[in-house]
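Section 3.1: Structural characterization of target chains.
Under the original work plan, the team committed to producing a structural model for every single-chain target entering the pipeline before any wet-lab resources were allocated. The record below documents one such target. The sequence was received from the expression subgroup and is listed exactly as submitted; it comprises 124 residues.
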Amino acid sequence: MTRIKPKSMTAPDDLILYTKMVDFLSWLFPILNTFPKNQRLVLQQQLGNSALDCLRLIISARNARLPRRKASLLFELNVEFEVLRKLLTVAHTIGFLNAKRTENGMGQLLELGKMTGGWLKRYE
């Protein structure tokens, strides 16, 4: 049986994840405004919604009381990070993101995913 650490010991990790997600959003939204106007209602909206869903899932997981619920939310968060990575890849392939921006975004998402995976291991 896995021992779960008291909430006071887990707060810094989830707070760091939240902060890094806010940093990712601060990086992403100005870039989305550079997408061609005719695509703003399609790919731009999907990227923005997916990123905001990640933030919502982080907050939900942070506030979940039951370990099983927290683990479920963290799993959903990992799936949403994967969706974001795929959407960034599509944006790059179409030519809306240059290689440097794509690499930067993927690096941030990779770090967020690793942090989420570490947090999830506590509840498995």
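The longest helix spans residues 67-94.
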